[in-house]
Amino acid sequence: MPKVIITAALTGGLHTKKVNPGLPEQPEEIAQAAYECYNAGAAIVHIHARDRNGAPTGDAAVYKEIHQLVRARCNIITQDTTGGGQNLTFEGRLGCLQAEPEMASLNMGSLLRTIGPHAGTIFVNTRSDIEFVAKEMLKRHIKPEMEIYHHGMLREVQNLIANKLVEKPYYVNLVMGMAYQGAVEATPENLFTLKQLLPAETIFNVCAIGPAQLPITTLSMLLGGMVRVGMEDNIYYSRGVLAKSNAQLVERAVRIAGELGVEIASPDEAREMLGIKR
Question: Would you tell me how many other CB atoms lie within 10 Å of the CB of residue 91?
Fold first, then answer.
């Protein structure tokens, strides 16, 4: 099996310190959490920036500050979100690209928010939007992580490949169990079928929400996939027990990989695997 790349999704665009005091929000907190996850074995850190009031922001200056603080500590791969948060416009979500991360997420379709206070609203990502963001990433040598929430979104992956807007190896993140945005249920059957439908020369990563995080990421390792853990997807370590830190969740993933006989990729090994040029 290939070495496993572990991504630590530190903050997200939804949770706050009210639900878990250990959630990092400000640049110094995010950078320290990234460093701790690097020491624990993560190769990539997925970053959602917040403003001084704790709200999601796409401000390039904030992302640049986070990158500088992270790079002063370690060489973990920086992966910014272009999903942002409910409060951001399409243009506002793309500010992070000006901060020149090595990677960035790219949502591969529109989503209907099905539960919570924003139920019934749409997270819009049209084909032209997706192509525009892909072109911006290609121009800036930013490796896209294509976010797939259900099988139908693979159509947009194929479209980017056909139009040469993404480079090999393609990197796809399978988002599972996110009822808030209508993602496919986090079941082994769905993971199997999604994997089978992936284009050739694709490396796949898996993230799952809440209690599904542990079993589904473990299954991903067994299937030769990469994993994402962290407080963006799951604020708990076990039932009713809050995670103390993002690093604690990374440490568990590393420990499980060791038990399965799977080696962990360092940041430089992950860069080589993913074809990151910078």
Answer: 8
β-bridge mates for residue 173, sequence order: 147, 205
Q: In the chain, where are the structural domains located?
A: 6-274
Query: Please, which residues have CB within 8 angstroms of residue 203's CB and are 6 or more apart in sequence?
Result: 5, 169, 170, 171, 172, 225, 226, 273, 274
Contact of 217 with 253, CB cutoff 8 Å: yes
Q: What whole-number distance in Å separates Cα of residue 58 and Cα of residue 80?
A: 10
Phi, psi of 23 (to 5 degrees): -65, 125
Supply the CATH classification number for the domain 6-274.
3.20.20.70
Reported as a single tens digit per residue, the pLDDT across 79-97 is 999 998 888 999 999 999 9
How distant, in Å, are the alpha carbons of 19, 41, 70, 250, 273 from that of 130? Answer: 32, 31, 28, 30, 24
The string of pLDDT tens digits covering residues 129-165 is 999 999 999 999 999 999 999 999 999 999 999 999 9
Global pTM reads 0.97
Token pair 């099996």 is at which residue?
1
CA dist 32 and 114 (Å) reads: 34
If you write DSSP's letter for every residue of 16-45 in order, what string do you get?
-TTT-TT---SHHHHHHHHHHHHHHT-SEE
Q: For residue 239, what are the contacts with CB-CB under 8 A and spacing of at least 6?
A: 211
